[in-house]
Amino acid sequence: MVSVEIEKLALLGRGLARHDGMTVFVRDALPGDRAQICITKVKPRYAEARLVQLERPSPHRITPSCRHFGACGGCDLQHVAYATQVAWKRAQLVETLQHLGGLTALPPVAVHPMTDPWHYRNKMEFSFGEVAGGRIVMGLHQRGSFQQIVKLEHCWIAPALASDVLQQVEDAANASGLPAYHPRRHDGFWRYMVIRVAQASGQAHVLLVTNEGDRDAVLRVAQAVTRAVPRVATVLWGVSTRVSDVAHPERTEALIGREVADERIGPLTVQVRPMNFVQPNLTQAERLYEELLAAAALTGREVVYDLYCGIGVIALLTAPRAQRVYGVESDPENIALASSNAARHGVANATFICGKVEELLLQRGLFRLGPPPDLVIVDPPRVGLHPDAIGPLLQAQPPRLFYLSCNPASLARDLKLLLDREPRFRLTRLSLYDFFPQTGHMEVFAALERSV
Ligand SMILES: C[S@@+](CC[C@H](N)C(=O)[O-])C[C@H]1O[C@@H](n2cnc3c(N)ncnc32)[C@H](O)[C@@H]1O
Predict the structure, then answer these.
(1) For atom 15 of ligand 1, which residue has the closest CA?
(2) Which of 220, 219, 217, 153 is nearest to 189 (CA)?
(3) CATH code of residue 35
(4) Are residues 109 and 132 in the same domain?
(5) Is the residue at 292 inside a domain?
(6) Is residue 53 located within the same domain as residue 147?
(7) Which atom of ligand 1 is nearest to the CA of 285?
(8) pLDDT 10s per residue in the chain (452 long)?
(9) Which of 102, 133, 317, 448 has its CA 20 to 30 A from that of 154?
């Protein structure tokens, strides 16, 4: 055990301290804390540690709203006032871009916090677990645990309706007599519940994911929950037999209601299923999309590529203002919905292509499908752009490249590669949207523009 002073908050909401010349990341520790820590992992360039005892608490500490904070893996920053969370995220973004990305001249960072930083997620995924005596409990994974579930009566970041649904499903699953799935033994029945609450209607769409087995048991749970919570409009059954901690079932069936639900995003009404990718914080996503459209200032003549397009929201928003739009996405279910949503909106100038961005760029000459791009928008997952994507992206010489990122570290790495290899690019815009209050995560919009 060692005693350290926490200097600052690092990415993902961990406190950063130095010990014996080594950088140590300490979970739950805040800048200003003096604490006894226990080092749990030593890597070549840093160590990880657990906070054992606070010797002098940071003046930034507040009482978390959720009584499960600390044990539950859902939130990392409830013990910090919201305004401070946002200020620290801004500082992390700037430091990451400067240190990892080597970017010295940054444009001013526009920061967009939430007015109400609670119950902001429109989609949430909960797991089933079991406690001593075999009782089923529902909640989120315990911090750092693949197996243990923290039973939640109320989740402060999930849609408000989710807590009611959680209790009903938990009771009905217990009444079924079937066991919860056990991730190590890979046996048992009840696995996950995904809930999405539509912005416009306030109706909930629930997906119950189980191992292969008793359909009638799932139907009884579905009936119990729709009786008890009338705003649950749909219950889908998903079967997943894979050893995976992601709720992506191999097959689904609508037990109650329709398989797809309407979701309103800005001027669009799109159809989605619980498994499809839609930004989990739509209040903030709508603000970001508005900024993106204003920054794009499309005149109707442009060719736009929306890479990593999900269900095509950005492509559908830009299509009415562009000559031609191409959306690329690797998940066939997302791309099928992108195409059907385009047809529903009468969008005839958008083409959706299913495949990996890097493979389409490298092997199939994506940008030779039509005229060269005027604007390329990329919104990759946390890993950022595949290294194979950078060369072909730059060869197409887009005058503008918009980068949406949920990970400042991969954003910094990619911006460095793009700016080193295309010196005519300038970073002209940097906006931080707090999509994920109470957690260490953030969303960033960066714009690169090529000088002629
Ligand atoms: C952050 S989401 C995109 C969200 C979308 N732009 C929106 O605003 O709704 C990233 C998407 O990239 C897809 N994806 C992941 N790896 C990919 C790859 N190598 N090529 C294409 N798409 C990929 C995922 O399925 C996911 O839908």
Answers:
(1) 381
(2) 217
(3) 2.40.50.140
(4) no
(5) yes
(6) no
(7) 8
(8) 899 999 999 988 899 999 988 999 998 899 999 999 999 999 988 999 999 999 999 999 999 999 999 999 999 999 999 999 999 999 999 999 999 999 988 999 999 999 999 999 999 999 999 998 889 999 999 988 888 999 999 999 999 899 999 999 999 999 999 999 988 888 899 999 999 999 888 999 999 999 999 999 999 999 999 999 999 999 999 999 987 766 679 999 999 999 999 999 999 999 998 888 899 999 999 999 999 999 999 999 999 999 999 999 999 999 999 999 999 999 999 999 999 999 999 999 999 999 999 999 987 788 887 789 999 999 999 999 999 999 999 999 999 999 999 999 999 999 999 999 999 999 999 999 999 999 999 999 999 999 87
(9) 133
Total of domains in the chain: 3
- 306 CA closest ligand 1 atom index: 6
**Distance from Cα 416 to the centre of ligand 1, integer Å:** 21
Distance from Cα 379 to the centre of ligand 1, integer Å: 6
Tell me how far the alpha carbon of residue 53 lies from the centroid of ligand 1, in angstroms.
Answer: 41
One domain for residues 55 and 105: no
**309: annotated active-site residue:** no
Residue 236 lies in a domain: yes
Q: Which of 265, 272, 277 to mutate to test the pocket of ligand 1 (most atoms within 8 A of CB)?
A: 277
Nearest CA to ligand 1 atom 4: 310
What is this structure's pTM?
Answer: 0.94
